Amino acid sequence: MRQLLNTLYVTSEDAYLSLENDNVVVQQGDSVLGKIPLRSLESIMDFSYKGASPALMGKCAEFGLGLSFFSPRGRYYCSVLGEKNRNVLLRREQFRFADDESEALPFAQSFIVGKIYNCRWVLERTKRDHTLRVNSERISEQSEKLRQALLNACKCSSVDGLRGVEGLAAKDYFFTFDDLILRNKDDFFFQERSRRPPLDRMNALLSFIYALLTSDCVAALQGVGLDPYVGFLHTDRPGRASLALDLVEEFRPAIADRFALTLVNTGKIKPSQFEIRENGGVFLSDEGRKTVLAAWQKRKQETITHPFFKEKLQWGLVPHAQALLLSRAIRGDLDAYPPFMWK
Questions:
Q1: Whole-number Å distance between alpha carbons of 189 and 200
Q2: 275 marked ligand binding residue
Q3: Which helix (H) or strand (E) holds 302?
Q4: Measured torsion, CA atoms of residues 38, 40, 42, 46, in degrees rounded to the nearest 10
Q5: Any known ligand binding at 101?
Q6: Does the N-terminal or the C-terminal CB of the chain have fewer CB atoms within 10 Å?
Q7: pLDDT at position 12, please?
């Protein structure tokens, strides 16, 4: 169980939520983990198997308090919405901003500034931690290019221009990505980003982890009442979760890329856990997927201090925290959306 500002996160798998007067009661077996006044909360996000009582659901609907249910792994199930729920108004604002480039641009810039900042941090941290094992000069050169890209992103006057800056920054980042791979270089190497299909083990691993991260972002956005298919940076396309892809951008380096590098550099993922298809595509085997999923769930349980809230929370809740900040920015409760910028 965790309370993040005025949102209650229930992460114990066997917790059950019930109502006592106007309080939400979090129970684990015969033990009461906590009682929180509903009037002090904006939303509840429940990651347990047992769920909540109908009485609590009814009271949340009456108070206009968001109650969303997820699997313990973060898959979104459903939300309880009442007459006072602001989801419709929130989505109207989201759609209005998405249709107006002048309104969409500040959100898109925040996503890309967060991404480039975190890309640079990944390079700088590797240079700091493994100075004798990496090409520090090349990493420093690319890091400087990313610093300039940050400035360029802030100056962009159009979303198309911002996409151009992001594309160049991604090339500069991935140019030295192979230097960050520290072992099994004959089997794990990186020349350029490839997908549909990925053409080497590193790209296969990145693509799989990006898919996991995107799913987490879809769940997080749905949980706060936003439409994950209407974005500010990625264009509309049938079946494309554009807003989720927008949100993923700032998480790719700090969460996904570092996780992939950790799996390779610690030897947790093996070259034998990949399959090479006739068309040249490389994919994780069943055993490889199980290894990655087990490590992913473990990583999501690790605790960090959120750079904006200044509170401790699990890595797995970071997308939910950022989705909450995004919803507040769209509603006008925040002057601007603060991207996740990790150190």
A1: 8
A2: no
A3: none
A4: -50
A5: no
A6: C
A7: 80
Residues of the chain with pLDDT under 50: 1-5, 84-85
Supply the pLDDT for residue 9: 78
Of 110, 12, 26, residue with least CA distance to 70: 12
Residues whose CB is less than 8 angstroms from the CB of residue 26 and which lie 6 or more positions away in sequence, other chains included? 1, 10, 12, 15, 16, 17, 32, 33, 34, 35, 36
Cβ atoms 255, 114 nearer than 8 A? no
Does 250 count as an annotated binding residue? Answer: no
User: Cβ neighbours of residue 290 under 8 Å, at least 6 residues apart?
Assistant: none
Q: Domain 2-85, what fold?
A: Ribosomal Protein L15; Chain: K; domain 2 (3.100.10)
CATH number of 91-331: 1.20.120.920
Instruction: Answer left, alpha or beta for residue 54, where phi above 0 means left and psi between -120 and 50 means alpha.
Output: alpha
Give the residue extent of every domain in the chain.
2-85, 91-331
Fold equal for 2-85 and 91-331: no
For residues 215-240, b (16+ Cβ closer than 10 Å) or e, as one string?
Answer: bbbbbbbbbbbbbbbbbbbbeeeeee
Residue 69, pLDDT score:
84
Q: Which residues contact 288 (CB under 8 A, 6 or more apart)?
A: 269, 270, 273, 274
Q: Are 77 and 70 in contact (CB under 8 A)?
A: yes
Q: How many CB atoms lie within 10 A of CB 244?
A: 26
- The CA-atom distances, in angstroms, between 155 and each of 148, 231, 329 are 11, 21, 21
Q: Is the pTM of this model over 0.85?
A: no
| Burial class of residue 30, CB neighbours in 10 A (0-12, 13-18, 19+) | exposed
Helices and strands counted in the chain (H then E): 10, 12
